[in-house]
Design goal:
2 strands, globular
């Protein structure tokens, strides 16, 4: 439920850029970082296949959100409603932002979860910190190209887009570094609670008994 909420929240916050010490920063940055952290935890505990199904549900939520927003944009305003022009100016961007989000959503979240899960198999669940940083770093490169290119190409200037994308990559990596100890503890506690150490395929070298999601 938190993942679904964050996906919808980011699509509203994506409509505004803010100034952060001279850098152009997209408004959804903090919510996006939290969603990546949750994706790390979920892919570490439940594996890529389970997280992929979760992301498909999120995709359906985004499409539903975009449909209703676009419907209200095109419907005529009530008599006496004075803010229709402002509403249209703001939310007429929503379909393009959602298309950008959906594109980035697939390639970013799935890239992050896939790399995290694959490295877990490769290193038999060791080196959590390095696996998480590698997954987020690569996913953010993909996100920068996909989301900012599709969502704001031709709308904002290239320096603004590059500034926002670069700041997004750096801030996500820094946040990931800061919260990694907490992320690792959260994943470990969730594994103990669920009684599961899930791998999408057998780790190299064996030595670990595989458990299925109950």
């Amino acid at each position: 439920m938190v993942m679904m909420a964050l996906m919808l929240i980011t699509n509203v916050l994506n409509l505004k850029f803010i100034d952060f010490f001279g850098f152009s920063v997209i408004g959804s940055q903090l919510a996006y970082v939290v969603s990546l952290i949750l994706a790390d935890v979920l892919s570490e505990v439940y594996g890529y296949r389970r997280v992929r199904r979760l992301l498909y549900v999120g995709l359906a939520c985004l499409i539903l959100y975009a449909g209703f927003v676009e419907l209200i944009v095109v419907l005529p305003p009530a008599r006496g409603y004075a803010n229709d022009a402002a509403y249209r100016t703001l939310f007429s961007q929503a379909p393009r932002i959602v298309v950008a989000s959906i594109s980035a959503y697939f390639v970013t979240e799935l890239t992050n979860s896939f790399i995290m899960s694959s490295l877990k198999v490769r290193f038999a669940a060791r080196y959590f910190y390095w696996r998480a940083l590698a997954a987020v770093g690569m996913a953010q490169l993909v996100n920068g190209v996909t989301f900012f290119g599709v969502g704001f190409g031709g709308v904002l200037s290239l320096p603004t887009i590059l500034s926002a994308a670069a700041f997004s990559w750096v801030s996500v990596i820094l946040c990931e570094l800061l919260v990694l100890p907490m992320t690792k503890q959260l994943a470990a506690r969730l594994k103990r609670y669920e009684g599961v150490e899930h791998f999408d395929r057998a780790p190299r070298g064996g030595g670990i008994e595989l458990d299925e999601i109950r």
